[in-house]
Amino acid sequence: MRVELVTIGNELLLGFTVDTNGAEIARALSAVGVEVVRRTAAPDRAEEIAAAVADGLRRTGAVLTTGGLGPTRDDVSKKAVAELYGVPLEFDEVVWSDIVSRFARAQRAPAAANRSQAEVPRGATVLRNKWGTAPGLWLDGELGLTIMLPGVPPEMRKLLELEVLPRLAARASGSVVRSLVVRTTAIPESTLAERMGEIEREIAPLTVAYLPGTEGVDLRATAWGMGPGEADRRLRAAADLLRERAGEHVYGEGDADLAAVVLEHARRAGLSLGSAESCTGGLVGGRLTDVPGSSDVFAGGVICYSNRLKAELLGVPPDLLAEHGAVSEAAARAMAEGARTRMGVDVAVSVTGIAGPGGGTPEKPVGTVWFAVASPGATETRRIVFLGSRREIRDRAAQTALFLVLRRLPA
Amino acid sequence: MRVELVTIGNELLLGFTVDTNGAEIARALSAVGVEVVRRTAAPDRAEEIAAAVADGLRRTGAVLTTGGLGPTRDDVSKKAVAELYGVPLEFDEVVWSDIVSRFARAQRAPAAANRSQAEVPRGATVLRNKWGTAPGLWLDGELGLTIMLPGVPPEMRKLLELEVLPRLAARASGSVVRSLVVRTTAIPESTLAERMGEIEREIAPLTVAYLPGTEGVDLRATAWGMGPGEADRRLRAAADLLRERAGEHVYGEGDADLAAVVLEHARRAGLSLGSAESCTGGLVGGRLTDVPGSSDVFAGGVICYSNRLKAELLGVPPDLLAEHGAVSEAAARAMAEGARTRMGVDVAVSVTGIAGPGGGTPEKPVGTVWFAVASPGATETRRIVFLGSRREIRDRAAQTALFLVLRRLPA
């Protein structure tokens, strides 16, 4: 089965908004064997939307749109598609009651503008949206199949997964394109490539891509156009090889989150965690608490951005800070040990560094970060010089702090 | 002047990677009057890349590519374009010395794989990359102009801004497409739309778009195809009208960051800030410390995820927590006042809530968050029920905490 995507919004054409939906939908459709043959971005004008959808229907018989279903006046997709199919828009009581109860949950009342969101092209199946106010639509007619999803990413995602993919998978069949990601961190891309050796030859016809980001380098193996069973078997073998070569720098597969891996290891070992952050200013705590259920392992942390708070909240001796500086092995060690004692946790990690853009010196350039992990019996320290912007240095430092904790936890 | 974009990478076609570069480049080019007439995504195969670039050159005479310049074997763009232009790749000593010194700054040595990054098509102007190892290239020949940029976003961005835009702006002329964003927060999209009234008619021919996100709703006014002077004048008038209608919910324009606005207001008033976070787990601290120079205002914070730490680090009475619960007005108030006293700051903000997905009750559903802002003379509290995923609830709560602090600071 072949489908075209039409993503709607002036912002996409002018680049004001990034087309995350197009990418996410392409990936999800490929995985169930539906081929995306073209991606088009259309502006918020009814005639342009109708033309893009009509072109797509002519070529493939199936179009999936996102965007243009909101309550504001620049949202015109539904009207455009209804006119293309030659059907009127009709007020739908079920959709309206979904909208009213959604607002009630937030203890508010819908605005008049929301009423237009309850209008549905005659003959369309409503894909009920429990995560927002714009319903999805499934319009199957003489012209072909048009699926309309809201542009708000979490709503699009839920409707795609729960309502659209099962229906499309039932229509599609045959070969698939599947991928498997092995996630690594704390190793540069070029060093990782050297470890990989002749991997491209060894895993062919699968391919491998190196995807560097602030969390590390992801290795993505892809199986192209084969049956799902063969694809999964070959991907598993390729991933095992990638894991073996990347060694201790691997922390998971797929969309594994290092913070979740750390929490899981600590939970299994019965160890509680705490943090003491200076240059990352809460990012380590933010990463850990982003994981549902983190509270049984992560007790909390201290953001000791000023030297005064390093002393007051963690008991770091002011003399030590005066002698070695706040960005030093001694300070990192004292912060981690202080956090461990003051918070009464088993393992505490500290981060202190120079995130820039100012504050660097020849001995301690911007990007210099000291880490310490205090755990029962010992405190380990590590110094790394990160490259990049302030944000990249901070994100990489938070990821590295989590990696250093992971290496101190029982496997 | 007209240009085509070719973004390179299998990931883009299959949707494994989101094409942020394409959007960013389209925006930057529009702003200097260069029209992007087509966007194509090409896979990591030399013949496909060459075909996409050749097609683009034939239609417009100018192509800008991103991606495929890294050290790994899936990076083949440069070779493909050199062959298309019929020129060899030559080792460039200046580029190599840039690469070597970049690695030296991180106290490492380049890998053998990095040598290929110093190869340059004969006749190309090197756009020196101080932020990564892959140089940009400007290849102007009989076939037309091909500009090649690395795919790593921060590197692409810097080269685009410093090397490419000035050169292109010199070639282009005439009308531009420009936008101006007014940023609002803590007001739903539909309520904001009601406040706006007949804004579309009033600011025509400019358009306005509502762009909701976890930080709030951005209002983007756009002037299409007029001279830069007129565009800027009309945008200023439109933005003033948007600001007037949105009222107290406006916190800035463009890419204004609420955390930076808060820090600026506090700095002017000579007030220091601190935070006490439960459900946001460090996100408020993370937002504030993401701003360079935040340390003179933001002293630090406490991530008191467990009730024990709420008591030990902030002095919240255990009885109070037992009676009212950790998610309560009393707890929020005690946290903010405790943080203010313990940290010795002028203004402290607290956040305690239920981010979900578990932990909700009929009286306190998932998304319920209590805030308190303790400042000289008074403590104000606020309860909001946020909708969305755990991540959205946390991000929105962090943004709201910053908004509540801003409203307590002198204007």
Question: Which spans of chain A of ≥5 residues are poorly predicted at pLDDT below 50?
Answer: none
Strand content of chain A: 25-35%
Helical percentage of chain A = 40-55%
* CATH fold descriptor of the largest domain in chain A: Molybdenum Cofactor Biosythetic Enzyme, Chain A
Largest interface: A-B, 108 and 108 residues
Mind telling me the CATH class of the largest domain in chain A?
Alpha Beta
CATH architecture of the largest domain in chain A: 3-Layer(aba) Sandwich
Describe the structure.
The structure is a homodimer of 411-residue chains. The first copy, chain A, is an alpha/beta fold and 411 residues long. Chain A folds into 3 domains: 2-171, Molybdenum Cofactor Biosythetic Enzyme, Chain A (3-Layer(aba) Sandwich); 176-253, Alpha-Beta Plaits; 258-408, CinA-like (Maf protein). The first copy, chain A, has 15 helices and 17 strands. The first copy, chain A, has helices spanning 10-14, 20-31, 46-60, 77-85, 93-105, 153-171, 189-196, 199-203, 228-246, 258-269, 283-289, 307-314, 318-324, 329-343, 390-408; strands at residues 2-8, 35-42, 62-66, 89-91, 119-121, 125-127, 136-141, 144-149, 176-184, 207-213, 216-226, 250-253, 273-277, 298-304, 347-353, 368-375, 378-385. In chain A, the strands form 4 sheets. Chain A has a 6-stranded mixed β-sheet, with helices on both faces. Chain A has a 5-stranded mixed β-sheet with strand order 14-13-15-16-17, sandwiched between helices. In chain A, helix 3 (46-60) packs across helix 4 and helix 10 (258-269) runs parallel beside helix 15 (390-408). The longest helix of chain A has 19 residues, at 153-171. Chain A is globular and about 80 Å long. The model of chain A has no long low-confidence stretch (mean pLDDT 91). Strand 14 of chain A pairs antiparallel with strand 14 (298-304) of chain B.
